TrEMBL record:
Organism: Micromonospora saelicesensis
Source species taxonomy: Bacteria, Bacillati, Actinomycetota, Actinomycetes, Micromonosporales
Gene3D superfamilies referenced in this protein's UniProt entry, alphabetically: Type I PLP-dependent aspartate aminotransferase-like (Major domain) (3.40.640.10), Winged helix-like DNA-binding domain superfamily/Winged helix DNA-binding domain (1.10.10.10)
This protein's name: Transcriptional regulator, GntR family
A Pfam short name: Aminotran_1_2
Domain HTH gntR-type: 9-77
Length: 446
């Protein structure tokens, strides 16, 4: 915790408000440790039960996490608007930032020409009563999904994959319910699960996707939903293989008590085939975002699923946000239909693959085995995240500590390869090897 931030309050409500305010202003940064319950109780002159209630309320709202001997900490992305600068400390000046998990902006299709074309198209404006999914967009989206073996019947749109996951979980689960998530898995999803008051159950992942035994254990532990990343799993790059999909489908076959959510966020960028699980369970949804291939600012994902699940999501959207902007839908449709954009996305996919495989090969030359079957990230197991991240920072590279993505998985680093050039690969691999295996200390013998 910041040495300068003084927690205050004599009731649970006041103490939790003081912590929340610290998070909002940035005085308590993501990952900051809070004092042990008894220590804070003694400092504030209240009973430990009062402090414990304050911590519990903030845990249920996803602001705090308690992790065994690591004590209680501020979550990496607490659901309270903080200044952005407080969420992610900037890398040292001059350092190369490989910690962000973003596509390379140079490889995203330029939107200008299509925005200009839309401006001259003069399409009829859409009002409240007629708004929804544009039929022509739905048609193209279904065709694209069916070409990949996804049974795309009922369809709706959401403001991105994570918005879709939030709506799906909200429509099927209640606070306190358990959700099976990949471990390691996407940090934003772990934060969302916490913010919804749900309990994550970690399912171990290998290069071929979630382990069957891990999913079985999560089901036995009462998971009400299972979230699987089809390809370019974040952070490991795993992609569900044909054999793993078959085994998972057999395990899940006919289950009526589980919501299966598949996140195909890499979509056209994934250079491995899709092996969907869609339809294995009675309640299922398959999400395909446009963020990675076409740009994260587009905020649109296609959601298909069983009739009830899709109706719940689209019905709930109708009474709230209403619909995904028709202007945005027209833009996405124009991008999908443009062969030059398709070619650009393919080139981007190829380029990410070269960088990823180049880094894996360069690491192998140093005897380091890393993971990254698809997508824009490489996952490198390390002995100690903190010391490796610090040593790399000193060498001029910012990478993400695996702790952001892990529940019980062993330590590792996530390295985003999207902005790397070929010339970077050898020096980066050398710096990683050096950080992981520092030369023996030159100090006095002990
Ligand atoms: C696993 C995963 N799903 C989805 C997304 C994209 O989500 P959205 O469509 O909300 O931009 C990302 C982006 O990093 C991701 O890593």
């Amino acid at each position: 915790m910041s040495a300068h931030y003084q927690l205050t309050g004599t009731t649970a409500v006041e103490i939790s408000a003081s912590i929340e305010s610290g998070i909002r202003t940035g005085a308590l940064s993501p990952g900051a440790a809070l004092p042990p319950v008894r220590a804070l109780a003694a400092e504030l002159g209240v009973s430990p039960a009062t402090v414990a209630r304050a911590y519990q309320e903030l845990r249920q709202r996803g602001l705090l996490a308690t992790a065994g001997r690591h004590g209680t900490r501020v979550r990496p992305r607490p659901p309270v608007a903080a200044r952005r600068s407080a969420l992610r400390p900037p890398p040292l000046p001059g350092a190369r930032d490989l910690s962000r998990g973003e596509p390379d902006p140079r490889l995203l299709p330029p939107l200008g020409p299509h925005l200009a074309a839309l401006a001259t198209e003069n399409a009829p404006s859409v009002g409240y009563s007629d708004a929804g999914v544009l039929p022509e967009l739905a048609e193209v989206a279904r065709a694209r999904l069916r070409a990949d073996g996804v049974p795309a019947g009922e369809l709706t749109l959401t403001g991105g994959a994570l918005d879709g996951i939030e709506r799906l979980l909200g429509a099927h689960l209640r606070p306190g319910d358990a959700v099976a998530v990949e471990d390691p898995g996407w940090a934003n999803l772990l934060d969302l699960v916490a913010a919804l008051g749900l309990r994550p159950i970690g399912v171990p992942v290998d290069d071929e996707g979630p382990l069957v035994a891990g999913v079985a254990a999560a089901l036995a532990a009462g998971a009400r939903a299972l979230i699987v990343t089809s390809r370019a799993q974040n952070p490991t790059g795993a992609a569900v293989s044909a054999a793993r999909a078959e085994a998972l489908r057999a395990l899940l076959a006919g289950r009526r008590d589980l919501l299966l959510i598949e996140d195909d966020h890499a979509a056209e960028l994934a250079r491995v085939p899709l092996h969907p699980l869609a339809g294995a369970t009675a309640s299922w949804a398959f999400l395909r975002s446009v963020s990675k291939p076409f740009g994260p600012d587009l905020r649109l994902a296609v959601l298909v699923g069983d009739e009830t699940t899709v109706a719940r999501v689209s019905g709930r959207t109708r009474v709230g946000a209403g619909w995904v902007s028709t202007v945005l839908q027209r833009l996405v449709l124009a991008l999908w239909r443009d062969p030059a954009v398709t070619e650009l996305v393919q080139r981007a996919a190829q380029s990410y693959e070269q960088r990823r495989e180049g880094l894996l090969a360069a690491l192998a030359e140093h005897g380091l085995t890393a993971h990254g079957r698809s997508g824009i990230n490489v996952w490198l197991p390390v002995a100690d995240e903190t010391s490796t991240v610090t040593a790399l920072r000193d060498a001029g590279w910012a990478v993400a500590p695996g702790a952001l993505y892990r529940i019980a998985a062993p330590p590792a680093l996530r390295i985003t390869v999207s902005s790397l050039d070929t010339a970077d690969l050898a020096p980066l691999a050398a710096a990683l090897a050096q950080a992981e295996n520092p030369p023996p200390s030159q100090g006095f013998p002990t």
